[in-house]
Amino acid sequence: MIRVSQTSYQYPGGTRIAFPDFHIPRGNHGLLLGNSGSGKTTLIHLIGGLLRGQQGKVEVGGVDMASLTEQGLDQYRGRHFGFVFQKNHLIQALTVEQNLLAAPFFAGLPQNSENAEALLQELGLEGKRQARIRELSHGQAQRVAIARALINKPTVILADEPTSALDDKNCDKVIRLLMEASTNHGATLVVATHDQRLKSVMPVSVELVASG
Ligand SMILES: Nc1ncnc2c1ncn2[C@@H]1O[C@H](COP(=O)(O)OP(=O)(O)O)[C@@H](O)[C@H]1O
Ligand SMILES: [Mg+2]
After folding, report:
1. Mean pLDDT of the 140-163 span
2. Integer Cα distance of 127 and 10 in angstroms
3. 15 C-alpha to center of ligand 1: Å?
4. Could you tell me which residues are beta bridge partners of residue 190?
5. What does the alpha-carbon distance between residue 171 and residue 20 come to, in Å, rounded to a whole number?
6. Residues, CB-to-ion distance under 5 Å, ligand 2
7. Are 134 and 92 in contact (CB under 8 A)?
8. What is the pLDDT of residues 90-99, one digit of tens each?
């Protein structure tokens, strides 16, 4: 599903970051593990098409990401990827449902309240549809972020440091929820992290080492 080969990336004025080759089969879960500064976020952004201009090849679902036009890339991203970040990037003043339905809106997909409701049920947030994000606990807000990542029925979920700020109990909860939800929705899950605790729950797809 995701294949990275001979890939490297250089920020303007920065040193070139070279990534080891790896492959994550469809429907699998894979960890991109490495210390701070080793290039995990860069790699997640290359896979998700948030960053372009790499050398080598990044393929998702058999599509070479470099072959897409800007417009094609926007469309591909909206249809195929769900993103979960360390910070949830939810809009505090809007309701849970409004936050969820923003995702299909920006991807040019139909906004379906029933989908939103079903996901909230699945993630244990029934009854929170009309709550504002600022009225939720941190854990609830994080589950809304996971629901938002799933609502466009992505083929790939990309999660960047989803557990780094969490204690052991919540770390375990969140990673299991992400794995379970990805499996239920037939999505491939990619987690980028320096959080060594995740090694015991997910297969390591690639270990990144900071250069210099
Ligand atoms: N926007 C940027 N411009 C220039 N250099 C960057 C930028 N983002 C990251 N870098 C550099 O690229 C390297 C990898 O960063 P990053 O992908 O964020 O690593 P990680 O997520 O593993 O901490 C670091 O040396 C970082 O300083
Ligand atoms: Mg990072």
Report:
1. 95
2. 46
3. 10
4. 30, 158
5. 27
6. 40-41
7. yes
8. 999 999 999 9
Ligand 1: does its nearest atom lie under 6 Å from the Cβ of 37? yes
Is the shortest distance between the CB of 34 and ligand 1 below 6 Å?
yes
- Judged against a pLDDT cut of 90, whether residue 191 lies above it is answered with yes
> Which ligand 1 atom is at minimum distance from the Cα of 44?
17
Cα–Cα separations (whole angstroms), residue 49 to 13, 20, 63, 75, 159: 21, 18, 12, 11, 14
Domains located in the chain, CATH noted: 2-208 (3.40.50.300)
For 118, residues 6+ apart whose C-beta sits below 8 A from its C-beta are none
Q: What is the dihedral of CA 16, 20, 21, 23, to 10 degrees?
A: -120
**pLDDT tops 70 at residue 127:** yes
Pairing label, strands 81-84, 63-64 = unpaired
Q: Whose CA is nearest to atom 6 of ligand 1?
A: 11
DSSP 8-state assignment for residue 95? B
